Amino acid sequence: MAAVLGIRAWPRPVVVVCATLLVAGCYYAAGRIGLSQQLTADGAVVTPIWPPTGLAVTCLLLFGPWCVPGIALGALLVILSLGVPDIESVGIVAGNTAAPVCAWLMLRAVGFRVSLSRLRDGLALVFLGALTAMLISSWAGVGMLVLSDKLPTDHLGIVWLAWWVGDAMGVVLVTPLLLLLYRARLPPPSVRWAEALGLTAAVCVLVPLIMYSSVSVLFLAYPILIWSVLRFQLAGGIPCALFVSVMATVVARQDAGSFGKLTDVETMMKLQAFNGTLGLTALLLSAVISEQLHTRRSVELACQELVEALQHLNAGGSGSPGPHERGVP
Fold first, then answer.
1. Counting Cβ atoms within 10 Å, is residue 81 exposed (0-12), middle (13-18) or buried (19+)?
2. pTM for the complete prediction?
3. Is it the case that residue 157 has pLDDT exceeding 90?
4. What is the C-alpha to C-alpha distance for residues 258 and 210, in angstroms, rounded to an integer?
5. Helices 88-109 and 134-147 meet at what angle, rounded to 10?
6. What's the CA dihedral at 161, 164, 169, 171 to 10 degrees?
7. Cα-flanking dihedrals φ and ψ of residue 46, to 5°?
8. In the predicted structure, residue 3 carries a pLDDT above the cut 70
9. How far is CA 110 from CA 58, 120, 123, 125, 183, in A?
10. Mean pLDDT of the 289-311 span
11. Packing angle between helix 192-212 and helix 221-253, nearest 10 degrees?
C-alpha cells in the first residue's frame, strides 16, 4: 500500500503576508492605470476615474477587513511612484484607506448584496459606497495639499470636485465590474451569443465614431448603453459604460471631438458629468431590470409549485375509495 504523505498547510502569517502583497500589487497596478489618463485643470492634475477605489471596495466586500493593510500599502506605493513622499502623504494614504473601509461598513450595515440583483443594492453602492464614502478621501487629500501649501486655495474647489468625482466613479464603474467577474460563469450556448457579438461590434465601432465626431453627439452613446443593459443587464451595461468612459477620457486628453474647443476646466467638468451620468444610468438601470427579472422568476416558480401541489391533491383525491367501495351503506 502506497504511503500517504500529509501536506502541511502554509502558516497563517505567511498566507496573510502573501495576500496583503497581492492586494497591494493590484492596487498599485490599478493606480498606474488611473494615472495614465490624467487631465489638467487650472494647473492641477486630476484623474477622471480612479480605479483603485473600486478595487479596494471590492476586496473588502469579498474578503473582509484583512485587506486593509494591503490597501494602505498599495496607496503608499502609488504615492512613492510619483516622487519622494512628504508628511502630507501620510494623510493621503490614510484618506485613501479610510474611504473604502467606510464604504464597506456602510454597505454592510444596509445589507448590501454583491450580486447587485436589487435596486436598493445599486442605490446603496452609488449613494453610500461612492458619493458619501469618497468624501473622506477627497477632503483628506485636498486638505493635506492645502496645509502643505502645495495647492493654492483658489484651486481648492475644482481640485476637490475632481478628486471626489474620480474616486466615486472608480466605485461606480470598477466595483460592479469586479464583482461581476468574481461571480462569472461561462453561460450555456444559446442564440444570444450572436446578439452579444453584435453588441460588442457595435460598441467597438460606433463609440469611437461618436467620441471623435466634431459635432457634439455624446448623447448617442446612451441608446447603445440602454440596449446593452436591457438585453444583458449588469454583464452588458457595466463593461459598455466603462468602455465609453475610457474612450471619452482618451478623447478629452487629446482635445479632440466634443472636447476640442473647450478650456481645461470645461473639459474636466463636461467629462466628469458625462462619466457620472453614464455610470449611474448603467448601474441603476441594470439593478432595476435584474430585480424585475428576479421577481418574475419568483412568481413563476411559486405558480409552478402551486400547480404541482393542486395536481398532487387531485391525484390523491381521485385515488381514494368512496363510501360504497369501503362497504359503508
1. exposed
2. 0.82
3. no
4. 9
5. 170
6. -170
7. -130, 160
8. no
9. 16, 9, 11, 10, 21
10. 83
11. 50
| H or E element, residue 45 | strand 44-46
- CA distances (Å), 261 to each of 37, 74, 276, 298, in order? 19, 37, 21, 52
DSSP letter for 2, please: P
Evaluate if residue 160 carries a pLDDT over 60.
yes
Burial class (CB in 10 A: 0-12, 13-18, 19+), 119: middle
Mean pLDDT of 277-293: 87
**H/E stretch holding 40:** strand 39-41
More confident residue, 100 or 255: 100
Cα(85)–Cα(141) distance, integer angstroms: 13
> What is each CA distance from 11 to 25, 70, 129, 291, in whole angstroms?
21, 18, 34, 43
Treating both helix axes as pointing N-terminal to C-terminal, what angle do 175-182 and 51-63 enclose, rounded to 10 degrees?
Answer: 40
Please name the residue ranges forming H helices in the chain.
12-35, 51-63, 68-82, 88-109, 119-124, 134-147, 156-169, 175-182, 192-212, 221-253, 264-319
State how far the Cα of 223 lies from the Cα of 230, in Å rounded to an integer: 10
Domain layout of the chain by residue ranges: 13-184+192-312
Beta carbons of 54 and 75 less than 8 angstroms apart: no
Look over the chain and give the mean of its residue pLDDT values, rounded to a whole number.
83
Any idea which residue has 464614502 for its cell?
A: 133
Residue 90 cell numbers, joined: 501620510
Strand partners, 40: 45
Q: Are 279 and 256 in contact (CB under 8 A)?
A: no
Mean pLDDT, residues 257-282: 85
Taking the C-alpha atoms of residue 231 and residue 115, their distance in angstroms, rounded to an integer, is 17
